[in-house]
Amino acid sequence: MERVGGMFTIGELSRRTGLPVKTIRFYSDEGLLPPADRTRSGYRLYDVKAMARLELIKTLRELGLGLADVGAVLSRETSVSRLAHRHIDALDEQIRRLRLRRAVLRAVVKRKSEPEEVKLMNKLASMSDEERARLVDEFWREVSEGLAVDPEFYERMRSAKPQLPDDPTPEQLEAWIEFAELIQDPGFRAAIRRMSERHSDALAAGEEVSPPSQEWCAWSERAQKALDAGLAPDSAEGRALADDIARGWATTGQDPDDRAFRDTVADRIAAGTDVRAERYWQLMAIMNDWPPVPSRVPAVQWMTAALRK
């Protein structure tokens, strides 16, 4: 029996909509598609309105709506527009997580990761921007808490947060994993804490806590050029640079030619030089798609060696 007096059987509905008979029967049992009538034998019959209702159910299900949401639309308890807005948000989050999962898998292939590393990578990659920011805030709080440091300087350091795009590259994801491991490493935290303590002590003593900013870039570039040229720290270029640094750093009453003073300047520069601290900013640049941060540590080490000659 296919059609009775203008009514449709489940078999006819199935042919017209492409839905399996089992699915249509399930919707009917769930109350989403009540039959318009029944035959004397008890077979369910559906009218044209039921046909249209079934097409709507099919469309809403294909868009990902659950049975409860479909029922709410059919009963006019909510609107399709309102549900669509909610589902867009849910889909956006799902897409974001799928992209992250894809990036993790690409990174696993590239790094040939072991099972334990894969587990950690997936955990770190699944963190939200807020969770990443919280990890950075915890790091800077631990390395500066209780110290009389320059608040403006440390606020600038703390304000830079890793923000991965929705579809991060394997390089960005790898950078985040390395970054998260770095700022949670006790040895790195202890090293930055020691830098902060020296910074605090120098402020308390009224000493210069950092080199003159205008000259520092020029000094670094000169040291890098000399290093690239294969010159030794005790070369004529090295001695000239050391003289300029000492004179630029010296304040009233300090002799830039004094050996002890130059050693003190070299010590302060060396204390603030750590390849891992530089790596912190290089990784931040990769994650946030900033211009690359070049390595300056070898040039700074050459500079301090020149000061000690």
Mind sketching the topology for me?
Elements: E1 3-4, E2 7-8, H1 10-17, H2 21-29, E3 37-38, E4 44-45, H3 48-62, H4 67-74, H5 80-111, H6 115-125, H7 129-144, H8 151-159, H9 170-183, H10 186-204, H11 213-228, H12 236-249, H13 259-271, H14 275-288, H15 297-308
Helix pairs in contact: 5-6, 5-9, 6-9, 7-10, 9-14, 11-12, 11-15, 12-15, 13-15
Please describe what this structure looks like.
There is one protein chain. The chain is mainly α. The chain folds into three domains: 3-74, Multidrug-efflux Transporter Regulator, Chain: A, Domain 2; 95-197, no CATH class; 210-308, no CATH class. The chain is 68% helix and 3% strand. The chain contains 15 helices and four strands. A two-stranded antiparallel sheet has the order 1-2. Strands 3-4 form a two-stranded antiparallel ribbon. A hairpin with a 5-residue loop joins β3 and β4. α11 runs antiparallel to α12 (236-249) and α12 (236-249) crosses α15 (297-308). It is rod-shaped, with a radius of gyration of 34 Å. The chain starts with a strand and ends with a helix.
Major β-sheet strand ordering = 1-2
Please, how many helices?
Answer: 15
How much β-strand is present in the residues? under 5%
Q: Report the strand count.
A: 4
Mean pLDDT: 86
Number of domains: 3
Instruction: Decide which structural class fits the backbone.
Output: mainly alpha
The percent of residues in helical segments reads: 55-70%
GO molecular function, one term: DNA binding
Keywords: DNA-binding
Pfam families: MerR_1
Protein name: DNA-binding transcriptional MerR regulator
